[in-house]
Amino acid sequence: MNKNKLNWIISILLGVIFLLLWIKMVDWNEFFNYFKKFQLKMVLFFSLFYVLAYFFRSLRWRIILKPIYQMKVHESFQIFITGLIINYIIPIRAGELAKSVILKIKKNVRISQSLPSIFIDKMTDLFPIILIMILIPLISVRLNTILFAIILLIFIIFLIFLGFLYFAANHKDKAVKFLNVFLKIIPSHYREKVEIFFENFINGMAIMQNRFWDNVLISLLTILAVLSESVYIYAVFVSFGAHISYAKILFGYTLMNLTYILPTPPAQIGSNQFMWVLIFSFALGINENLTSAAVIFSHLLTTIWIFLLGGISLLALKLKFSELVMKKNRNLNLQQ
Description:
336 residues, mainly alpha, 16 helices, globular
């Protein structure tokens, strides 16, 4: 069994387990009653803030990539959304590599050059863990063992990424030597290509050095993305009749977003439902049936947005989904 099939099987099983756990939590009569007083127009309008959040993130990636390739605003959004739809369908964050693949196909930017920008971009998505730490003592949160473990794990991942970035940017030679230790297990006829790729990758990790104002702008765009997405989620809960502060929604959805760094099933089916109830109901005290109604509708609406924008982006880029995935799976030959 190849690795891709194994990833699919594991992710689907994970989704089924989460889905079964969630189903046991729901009172279906109460669940459907929440849809009777649901304010659809309000949520449809505020869902634009969900799209806006990804626009902010695409601008952030555009700034990070600027020394390598200066993308136009619409280019960065199209490529970013294309990566998002691939992430949504395929496990293990395949859309991140796909963004580098698109830049190689369309703009002839080497994968080893663009990949560090994507690594840094994803790392900035972990910065809001600091916001989580600040909000915990300020709002009423019941941290059970699972939530505490999730927050701790994300914080550890954040520190590892931060440490790797600092080490790669300030000690390039040592970082390359460290990676060369692992290259010994690779067949000799591939080793030279892999070594060149990793050397280029390590060199690319210094991309944010001596760019103070760009770093400030990247941090600002990260905050705006988190705030914008939380406005949408706040509107979803209010439309179902929830009485909750925006600060709690900000905490809950920021934590929810951070969990996407962990393995998720295709389209987050199962994991989304379970994690929303775990965070918004068990930790923040919202009725679990109301939360379940909110997550089902929100998940459906955001899926429509992702596939709509992803489809338009693929058309604009003149790419086919199947072609892009095949090229991603071949890894486009590391010598490129």
